[in-house]
Amino acid sequence: MKRTKLFTAALFAAAWLAGGMAWAQSEPAQDSDGWYLLGTVDDVEWFGQQVMDGKHATIKGKLTANIDYEGVVNRHRPIGNYGQKFVGKFDGQGHRILNMILNDPTLPKGNDDGTGFFGCVRVGGDGFIMGSDTEKETNDLVEIKNLIIDASCTITSSRANTAGLVGRISERTPNNTVLIENCINEATIVTTANAPAGIVGQINNAADGNVIIRNCVNKGTVTTSGLAAAGIISQVRDCAVKLNIESCMNLADVKSTGNKNCGGIHGANTSSKGIIKIINCGNTGNVTGTDESAALTGWIGSNSGNVITNCWNSGTVTGVKGTDNTYRGTVTATNIYDKNGGQGTLITNEMIASGELCYRLNGDQSDIAWTQTLDGTQNYPLPVADGDQVFAHGTLNCDGTFAPGTSYNNEGPDGVDQIPHKIDEKIGICTNCYAHYQEPEKAGDYYLLKNAGNVEWLSNAIANGGGAAFYAK
């Protein structure tokens, strides 16, 4: 089976000087590829100071140990600000940031900066074009990966664009990319302003750029009285960026006490300029807003290119507008499941725990994006490539649903027999599922309609034909 490149099991199991003085720490060692090796708080703060001083625009750093900020509030200075954005690479190598307490830290550009381990990141370098046949990483790709913001960290701010990992992504070189991959936020996020999230606060002024958030998890609660709180990324603000959110999970509550557009995965696409794709993502946290909030995205926008596919939700939602409690906006949505019903297929706790949801999320089983260990230790599916694949044993109804008695395990292979459709020729409808219609015969250019099923088939064909011409009699 082909498996997508997702989380590693290890990742899942698992200083601001007075008066803004320059950092005095000596330069850390570099490896043969030019990566700075960062093993202490002083190393990390020296690295950040180089960005703030405008040196080494494409600087690269790797953590060689956990970094512990215990004992001092605002000891860490968010890496990059609106004037000097981070345009390099950072690899946490699976290490943790511990005891980082950010409490309205002094920021050079004030409200233009973001608050988080990284303050402001720029979409720079050559990157790669998402979805292209020649998609590949280049040396100039801006990249943050393999980093865990530990539960011992807290981030409190009265400013917009606050998150555990990256406060803000802003500006771009056309068609270039920021990749945020294999990162986990466990820190509590509290703010009174707009655009807080677990992983990324806001993207703005990044037209023609690409942002990919892949294989990331939020485990820290996000609370605000402002707009667009979210587990993974809060807000795309007035810019035509292409944003892919792939194989991400929100496992914590998201709450606004006084505003709208909250979502477990994404908050708001203001002005609907961005094109957003949410692929293989799940939410178990409770989402609370005052209006226009939903389980996956509070407002994905009205672009025709928006996509949500192979996603699920088991959290409750408060502050729903109308009946759109799974997602809001114009979107091509496929294979969506929601414990609350909403726009997705209704699922139950039993379906989630048994492995049935995991099996359904994998569709035709040709690309295994979701796994679940069915030994009682994993109660829901996760997008983990080296986890256990779920197999089904039983009977598949003609409409694609499983008959009672179907079981799920990690043993494999699938043992599934499908009942064929049974068409009643008089009415042209399957009497097993009553949802499959007989295709009419054709004479020349004309479809010959002889029963109700033929008519319904043609009606669906017209609806899905995108304005193509149909002839019938």
Task: Describe this structure as you would to a colleague.
By secondary structure, the chain is mostly beta strands. It is 8% helix and 32% strand. It contains 5 helices and 43 strands. The strands form 8 sheets. The protein has an 18-stranded parallel β-sheet that branches. A 7-stranded parallel β-sheet has the order 7-11-16-21-25-29-32, with no helix packed on it. A 6-stranded parallel β-sheet has the order 8-13-18-22-26-30, with no helix packed on it. α5 links the parallel β42 and β43. The longest helix is centred in the first third of the chain and has 12 residues. It is elongated, with a radius of gyration of 24 Å. The N terminus is likely disordered.
Which secondary structure elements does this structure contain, and how are they paired or packed?
Layout: E1 2-3, H1 9-12, E2 36-38, H2 41-52, E3 60-63, E4 67-68, E5 89-91, E6 96-98, E7 101-103, E8 118-123, E9 142-145, E10 148-149, E11 154-157, E12 162-163, E13 166-172, E14 177-181, E15 184-185, E16 188-191, E17 196-197, E18 200-204, E19 210-214, E20 217-218, E21 222-224, E22 233-237, E23 242-246, E24 249-250, E25 254-256, E26 266-270, E27 275-279, E28 282-283, E29 287-288, E30 297-299, E31 307-313, E32 317-318, E33 332-338, E34 345-346, H3 349-354, H4 356-361, E35 367-368, E36 391-396, E37 407-409, E38 415-418, E39 423-424, E40 429-430, E41 441-443, E42 446-448, H5 452-463, E43 471-472
